[in-house]
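Format notes (please read before filing issues)

Several people have asked whether sequences and C-alpha cells are stored in separate files. They are not. Every record keeps both together, in the order shown below: the sequence lines, then the C-alpha cell lines. Line labels are part of the format and must not be stripped during preprocessing.
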Amino acid sequence: MKVLVISDVHSNVWALREVLRAEQGFDLLVCAGDYVDYGIAPKETIALARSVPGAVLVQGNHDKLLTEIYDSGEYRTKKGHDFKWSHDNCLKMDGEDIEFLRALPIHQSFEADGVRYLVQHQYKSDYSTVECRFLFDQFWAEHAPAAPDGVRRCMIFGHSHRQAVHWLSGDRLWLNPGSVSYRRPDDPEKTAQYAVIENGEISLRQVPYDASAQLAAAKEYLAKDAMMETELQDFFFFFGNAKTSRDPLVRKESSK
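Then the structure lines:
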C-alpha cells in the first residue's frame, strides 16, 4: 500500500498539484492540516484536497484561525498595514469552504500494512514534540485505539514545517512530512516537501514547483501598499529571492 503524507499546504495549490502529480497511483492521501493561510489560493487548495476519495484529513491551527476570522467578519474591515494573508484568504472563501475547515477532526487514526497511525496537526499548542516513549504512550492512549504489544505505531504531525522521522524505539516513531509550501526562516530550502509510506517503509521526498504566482501577488500588494510589511517580507523570502524573511530591501525586490 502506498500512503502519501502531506501537511501545511497553506493555500499553495501549485505545490500541491506537483506533489500529487509526482506521486500518482497512491492508495491513500493523509494531510496533517493547515490547508489555508500564507498562500493565495485557499478555495482551489481545499477543492483539490476534498477531491481525493477516502483521504484522511485533520484540522490545523491556521484552519481553525481562519474560521474564527471569517466568523468575526474582521477581514472585511482590515485595510493597508493591518491587512494579512489570513484576511486575503477569507475574502476568497465562501461559507462552504469555512464549514469544511470547521468540520475537520483534530485527530484521526488508521491502519496500513499492519502499522497503526495517529494523525494530528501538532502535539501541543507550541512547537514541542513527543520526545520519550512515556509521552508517546500517554498521547496515543488519549487519542487512538489501543494496539497490541510489538505492533508498530507511528504518529504523524505537521506544524513545524521541518521534515523528519523520529524513532523512539523499534515500534514507536513519529513522522513530520514537512510543508508542501514553505520552510521556516532558518531553512532556505524551497521545494514542496512530503513523505511516502510504502509497505510500511517511510521515504522523505521533495519536488520543485512554480512559486511565481505567490510572488506576483506579494508584488501587487506591495505596489498598492495594501498589506502588513512583515507578511509581504515573508512572501519575498519564501517565494522570491530575498535574503531573509525580514529583508529591509524587500521593496527593491518588488521591481525585479
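For reference, the curators noted about this record: Residues 61-72 form the longest helix (12 residues). Confidence is low (pLDDT under 50) at residues 252-256.
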